Amino acid sequence: MTDGWNWSRPPTSPSSGDPRQQPYGPPPGSPASPWWSDALTDPWRDPYAPSAVVLPAPPPTGGPQLDTPPNPDAPRRPLASIMVICLVTALLAGGVGGTLGFLFAVKGGYVDAGRTALGAPGQNTPESAQRAEESFGGVVQRVQPSVVTVRVSGAIGSGFVVSADGYVITNDHVVEGGDSSLSVSFHDGSTAAAKLIGRDPESDLAVIKVAKDGLTPVALGNSDQIAVGDHVLAFGSPLALVNTVTAGIVSALDRTIQAGEESGTTRYYAAIQTDAAVNQGNSGGPLVDAAGEVVGVNSVIRSVGGSTTEAGNIGLAFAIPINQAKRIAEDIIDTGKARRTVIGAEVITGEAASGARLRAVESGGPAAAAGLRAGDVVTKLDGRPLDDGTGLIAMVRKYAPGSVVAVEYRRGSKPSSASVTLAADTN
Fold it and tell me: Pro residues bias located where (predicted)?
């Protein structure tokens, strides 16, 4: 066995039938092969393998020549020109793709031409999409059209529409001194003149009427059904920042407050306390629960400021319960005057007596009819503990005339109880 590199023709025998012994050369009668002699000297040819040479048929004459094999002797394109063509093609493809991608991105709002795009693209939510009714956004959308900014002689306060024909509830201290110069503005920027219908300084409530038809009134809730921890929203124009909404919770109920300027009317509140941010200008605006119903009228803030101009929110604000505000507003609209609820007794204020000590009892009044006397100390009213006389006045004014309330009191060291039917002040 050899690798063929030094192969030589083996001897032949004319009588041998072994094909390997046949003489090499073209078969008799066959046309001479133009490469036969080359094959005889091919060092890689198996000298014992039979061979047959089949020449391809000549191509047809006339017509196009199909599947013509490449001519190995034809001149080839230089490698440099091929590389240039590939490079130009790649650059053109990249440029077109990049341009189309940029145009689509700009059209889709994902990038701003000439600026770096940060963040992932958001959902294409229409600007007019309505928020869920139970969400804060849904509540604001329903309530905000009914909230107004009240402007009085350069001062500013808030209020809210309670009837389609234009009645608005606000604070008495908002409209004080502005009988002929009232105007309101709405959340959409429109304005309208307003006139004072009536006011009750001691409850700090007033009613004005707006000269505009087709208004949307707010829904009024039940302030007796709210609880500490409920979510609330405060609407208004604090610090002249119109259309402001702040959020918080009910942080206390029946917080008895005595307010008012030293030379003015003393006001008493059994207030809803909230930690929603309330500042000057919020006065008269609605306090709204999570259902979008008004439960209070924002009225008082407590501040560490030394004067009215320095007062600011410190996480405590107080609202008049809407049940009380609604009753007084109806009185003002129907009669021009609010009825004040009384117990028929005079109390001592500023005394630490663990309750409200009665200075005097009106003959024939509600307290006297229930058996109370001067000197008795009322410790609870309708189950609500009282600290002093201020608390008794504030709690009594929360109820409507004719309401029957349970009273617990102390006479000397002996505890007693009674039911008192509250009445309206005849003055």
Answer: 56-73
